[in-house]
Design goal:
- The chain is of the alpha+beta class.
- The chain contains nine helices and 13 strands.
- The strands form two sheets. Strands 2-3-4-5-6-7-8-9-10-11-12 form an eleven-stranded antiparallel β-sheet.
- The longest helix is centred in the middle third of the chain and has 52 residues.
- The two termini are 26 Å apart.
């Protein structure tokens, strides 16, 4: 999937600079990338408003227990920077699943297959030696609709399935031929010995008067003929084995080609995709597991639609977070829509987000009215991205960012490069 998630982040830069210049009023929230609402990372990290250098993804019960034990910390202290996400459905071995079963699952199967649970912890840095408070979060997400694969992807998958079945059939023939051709070298050596013995007997019978060697000659001749038939059958099996090996090489080459075509296709499904996530966050005083209190919650609802033929897509977002630390503890509600369409190798998109801040701050300056703080603003942007090769993308954007406290609306106008950096490392388990 093309790395479009970074574009709104780049486009937000002028807005951030504009916000920093207005130091007289409480600064409104920074511009948020619309694509980040899709929760490409674990929602537990989004609840903390932090990132992790690595995310553990255990896929066996033993690995899950080991990861939880290692992340529990020592002496009852909440660790810093721990992040884990796992899907319970895949913690045990299951039979092979076809692409058709994967993409055409019912709602119940989708919930079982795609439900993932994530946990994360963080301890803000402090210059003092006093014990630091820590935060931990737990969240769950799942899919209620997963669209359908593109026709080209389905056709390539069907071709791969047919080639794999053909490979299995020919591999069995190759094994049978290999078993039937066993002992060919030894049979050839015994046949040579019988040929030499028969040649010597013929000379002695024809040159000498002895008649007693004729019976031995006849028996040797019979053994020679039997060995010839044996060697011929083994040679035929060896020829079949060699031919089957050539067929396997050709099928492997075809499978490699199909795999490259499969990887080059758009793997994101078409049609309706609906993701939902929710979670909670707790504050642990002085970093102690036994001194916790509820600190906030978050809910995400992300519907998405992709056209099968025109390259058109819609992404709707709805996100609610309570007690957002970066926004002085206010509650945050975002509702927005993004529309995009492919333009050659690149893509053209536009987005509009409505944002509301409300609630009493947990820290920071008091609200203008001395009580409940409410603020509503919007953001819109037009974006263009084009691949330059590898992970390098050219990006451009234009629009208007969220309104500042003084009433000004920063302009979004950027041209730059996306270097494709900043991905979170995923730590695989031993399996």
């Amino acid at each position: 999937m093309r790395p479009r998630w970074l574009i709104p982040l780049v486009a937000a830069t002028p807005a951030l600079l504009g916000a920093q210049e207005s130091a007289r009023e409480p600064v409104l929230p920074q511009a948020v990338s619309l694509e980040t609402f899709r929760l490409s990372g674990p929602p537990a990290l989004a609840l903390l408003g932090s990132s992790a250098a690595s995310v553990a993804r255990p896929n066996t019960p033993r690995d899950l227990i080991a990861s939880l034990v290692s992340g529990a910390g020592a002496n009852g202290i909440v660790p810093d920077g721990y992040a884990l996400e796992t899907a319970p459905f895949w913690l045990v071995r299951r039979r092979a699943m076809t692409l058709a079963e994967y993409h055409e699952a019912s709602i119940g199967q989708l919930i079982r297959q795609f439900t993932a649970i994530s946990v994360a912890t963080s301890r803000p840095s402090s210059r003092s030696d006093a014990p630091r408070d820590a935060r931990a979060s737990i969240a769950i997400r799942t899919l209620l609709a997963n669209g359908r694969p593109s026709p080209r992807l389905r056709a390539i998958g069907d071709s791969m399935r047919i080639a794999q079945l053909d490979y299995i059939s020919r591999f069995r023939r190759w094994e049978d031929a290999g078993a039937a051709s066993s002992g060919l070298d030894g049979a050839r050596r015994r046949l040579e010995q019988q040929e030499e013995l028969l040649s010597s007997l013929f000379i002695r019978v024809l040159a000498g008067p002895e008649t007693s060697l004729r019976d031995s000659t006849i028996r040797t001749l019979a053994r020679r003929d039997s060995l010839r038939a044996f060697v011929a059958s083994r040679q035929s099996a060896a020829d079949r084995e060699l031919a089957a090996a050539g067929d396997l090489d050709r099928i492997e080459a075809r499978l490699e080609t199909l795999a490259k075509r499969f990887a080059a296709e758009e793997l994101e499904p078409h049609g309706l995709i609906l993701e939902i996530a929710a979670g909670g966050r707790a504050l642990f005083e002085e970093g102690q597991w036994g001194r916790q209190r509820t600190d906030g919650l978050g809910i995400w609802l992300t519907p998405m639609y992709r056209s099968r033929t025109s390259g058109f897509e819609l992404i709707g977002v709805s996100r609610y977070l309570s007690g957002v630390k970066d926004y002085d503890g206010h509650d945050l509600l975002d509702i927005g829509l993004r529309a995009g369409i492919d333009a050659g190798k690149g893509s053209f998109s536009a987005e509009h987000v409505w944002r509301s801040l409300h609630g009493s701050p947990m820290s920071g300056p008091a609200s203008p009215a001395g009580g409940e703080y409410r603020s509503r603003t919007t953001r819109w942007a037009v974006l263009l991205d084009y691949p330059l090769g590898g992970k390098l993308w050219a990006v451009a954007s234009f629009g208007s960012d969220y309104r500042l406290p003084d009433g000004a609306r920063p302009v979004i106008a950027t041209i730059g490069l996306n270097l494709g950096l900043g991905a979170i490392e995923i730590i695989p388990s031993r399996r």
